[in-house]
Design goal:
By secondary structure, this protein is of the alpha/beta class. The chain is built from 23 helices and twelve strands. The protein binds D-mannonic acid.
Length: 507
């Protein structure tokens, strides 16, 4: 037994009023920091205002760390809201259970079939949807998808949903809403498609009942989620312990800003999430594109340029004048023209708010965190706006710089050292890309192999050799003259673009 403060629990909650446990109504897949500082906080506000059986059963995909920590503290944890001007703690207290899917895969299916569960929310990251790089369809060549299709306890999110819905269909078919909260455009529709593809790939008439049930009683609304939520550090745990007088091993840091725009199409009721500020709207698609491009797309650019400049934090990266210029230019000239803002959102205010959020120097958001999983995240952030810009006669030099920065970080050409933050970026494609880089003659050769031959960003972008060429040139500038020179080169080229875009000739 070590000394020091005791653990946060229901009996010892440091002055927080701990809500009475609600009965479970939501199953959440992806029990990471984001869910705990976002949907859980809105659910707490809804329960405080309206009550209802909307407790949350949280399912972590593989990691036991959060589940063990939560279980040791009666499923309670704090959210630390952090900015240079503020440090405040709150305690959502909405979880009724937590377990690890990899340890209890059958339990995921059983929970999905339980009629008490009326909403399944997902934060499984862009990586969790098992889509094929070139097509965006369910990746039937993925070993884990194939194993789920073959039967046995499902391990992929789409397999779990499909198997759970099959079981639910045969057990009475109570209506259900599946609500994706990941950074994918049209995330509801996409999830529905993937589940249907999975069911459609099952032999014979095995999926007939489930497919009819899906048509009849399952809703897949889309939603746009937004809150910058870094990873928890030991420093934060110690800080929270000092302030609370209790150890909270599961505390989550978050910025003050938060937003949730949801399509109001639920099959079996929902919590009053508007109590926490959620917006129910039929413009979710606009909210999503605005967020995925202006925020996430620019975030990736800042992360790769920052890491290559030796910065470990997003705030320090965007504080560099040249990176701020690149970020402003990508928003103003490349991402901005590709989105239609939802009603009530002012573009200038939104941009100003973005820079303030990225500049939050107290949050400790790392470039390595944002740069991680670029191969799947960038698929959401790059091809659509690039194709659109090229079609409108604008060449997206800064988006090309983002891709060059990504490849310089995760697939450095021989002899180029991208630095520790870049090395810390995890990416499922890293090994494959590194192999390509090891034998590439130069940046152009690498970009060609990755974008055109391997089609990392899909078939449509693979057809744009001019884009791959530009990425390659910028990789070479980064490696031969440094990242600041590459930023300048991209900005100069962008300045030289015609002010009035010309419609491109059909190639
Ligand atoms: C970030 C997002 O890691 C990333 O790719 O762009 O996690 C971002 O912080 C959130 O989407 C903000 O809502």
């Amino acid at each position: 037994m070590t000394g020091g403060p005791s653990r946060l629990t229901r009996g010892s909650a440091g002055g927080f009023s701990v809500p009475a446990p609600a009965r479970p109504g939501i199953l959440h897949l992806g029990l990471g920091n984001f869910h705990r500082a976002h949907q859980a906080v809105y659910t707490a506000a809804a329960l405080a205002q309206d009550g209802g059986d909307w407790g949350v059963v949280g399912v972590a995909s593989r990691s036991r760390a959060v589940v063990d920590a939560l279980r040791a503290q009666d499923l309670l944890y704090t959210v630390a809201q952090i900015s240079p001007a503020e440090f405040s703690l709150s305690l959502p207290g909405v979880h009724t259970d937590a377990f690890v899917a990899a340890d209890q895969p059958d339990r995921v299916v059983a929970q999905l079939a339980d009629p008490a569960i009326r909403i399944v929310t997902l934060t499984v990251t862009e990586n969790g949807y098992s889509t094929a790089a070139g097509t965006g369809r369910l990746d039937l060549d993925d070993r884990r998808v194939a194993a789920d299709l073959a039967g046995g306890a499902p391990r992929t999110t789409i397999g779990q949903l499909a198997r759970g819905l099959q079981r639910r269909a045969s057990g009475g078919g109570a209506p259900l809403t599946v609500l994706s909260c990941d950074n994918l455009a049209a995330n509801g529709e996409r999830t529905a498609h993937l589940v249907r593809e999975f069911l459609g790939a099952l032999p014979g008439s095995e999926a007939e009942e489930a497919l009819a049930y899906l048509d009849r009683a399952v809703a897949f609304p889309s939603s746009m989620v937004d809150r910058i939520v870094p990873a928890t550090t030991d420093l934060l745990r110690d800080d929270v312990a000092a302030r609370l007088g209790l150890r909270d091993e599961a505390t989550v840091p978050a910025e003050p800003f938060t937003m949730w725009a949801i399509e109001d199409a639920f099959a079996a009721g929902r919590p009053a999430w508007e109590a926490g500020g959620a917006v129910f709207t039929d413009e979710v698609d606009r909210f999503e594109l605005m967020k995925v491009r202006l925020l996430n797309g620019t975030h990736s650019l800042i992360a790769y340029l920052g890491a290559l400049s030796g910065e470990s934090l997003i705030a320090a990266s965007v504080a560099r004048a040249e990176i701020e210029r690149a970020a402003r230019a990508v928003i103003g000239r490349e991402y901005g023209p590709s989105v239609q803002l939802p009603e009530g959102i002012d573009g200038q205010e939104y941009e100003q708010q973005l820079f303030q959020r990225w500049g939050n120097s107290a949050l400790g958001h790392r470039t390595a965190q944002v740069g991680t999983d670029g191969s799947v995240k960038l698929r959401q952030r790059i091809p659509g706006p690039v194709i659109q810009a090229l079609g409108e006669g604008r060449f997206p030099h800064l988006i090309a710089l983002c891709v060059a920065g990504y490849l310089a970080c995760v697939a450095p050409l021989p002899g180029f050292e991208p630095g520790p933050e870049a090395r810390a970026m995890a990416d499922a494609a890293r090994d494959g890309l590194s192999l390509l880089a090891a034998s590439a003659r130069n940046g152009q050769d690498l970009a060609h192999r990755v974008i055109v031959e391997k089609q990392l960003f899909g078939a449509e972008l693979a057809a744009r050799q001019d884009f791959a060429d530009r990425v390659g040139e910028l990789i070479d500038t980064i490696r031969c003259h440094g990242v600041a020179a590459a930023i300048q080169e991209a900005l100069d080229a962008s300045d030289a673009e015609p002010a009035e875009p010309r419609k491109e000739q059909v190639r």
